[in-house]
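User: Here's a chain of 331 residues. Predict its fold as tokens.
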Amino acid sequence: MMMLLVLLGMLAGVSDAILCKDDIELDNVQDYIYRLEKKPLDKYWSKYVEPKANANNELVIQRYNMHLTYTIFGKFDSDPSDATISAGYYKQDNSLIYSVEVDCGAGMWRSYAPNVELPEETEKYQEGQLEESCGDGEIFDVILKVQQAHLMNWLYNGQPLQEGSQNITFRKKGQEAVRERTLYVPSPDGRPKGGAADATKIKIQTTGSAVITRLAFGRCIAWPEEITRNCTAVNEWILKRSKSIVLGHELYGANMPTYFMECYNDTLFLWLQSKIHPDEKSIPESAYCCCVNMETGKLFSGDKNVDCQSSKECIQSCTSTSYDADLIAGT
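Assistant: Prediction complete.
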């Protein structure tokens, strides 16, 4: 049954969100597995990192960019009083890395991690109350933000499903520095190996009236299709889930607050977006400038190679492509 639902979901089609590796439309499924085509430590995700020679004079990648984001979209198609939403990150052998459950009836969330001493066993890690109740006919989203092998966190409708923080000492340009980060997720694997570095899939299961309608994955920012024709609403959604100190959740945010959509007016998007979230091909400290559809905010042609340039070399104006004079005249 699960395999059938997965196949049906895949047949529902693929949408064109901005620079996501995958943006998959699903047909109201309740069981879904997304499998990573490339492992987190594959060179694919760190293309700009030049290999260096190790002690055996072998060229190897000595630094990886593991920042990956999974955004799960869904809705409650009837009374959600008995609905649950579960999502988990797993290794190839199906052993758990980190999972979360949203329990609408109880108004609670719970997260789970492997037992450090007995890895084959799962135990509750944290729990808390939902800030918003589940509503009949309402949409919802669940985000998994991965930063490092043992640093990752979940959000539900913009609410962090994790508590606590720690100060981590690291070296920057030869100097010792301290940074506040989320807590390490419990794992039997010794840092910095294992954990999310060994991930191969994310599993999603729902019960009751909760159904999954879409999954976006990659180094990108996706938003619900239901609000895509309202630039102001899109930015409110993005910033609530960002690392903004004022509008988002700082440590627990999915992306930096600098990556939002530029609006022409309340509903229309600016035809040239100057700072689209970088992806796996971006060089450090760069983003993209892209020509976008003024009504939807999505790439104008749907082809990154046509619509986008590096923010460090942005010379396009998009006036001959995505600029829509008729839309401007009608405002």
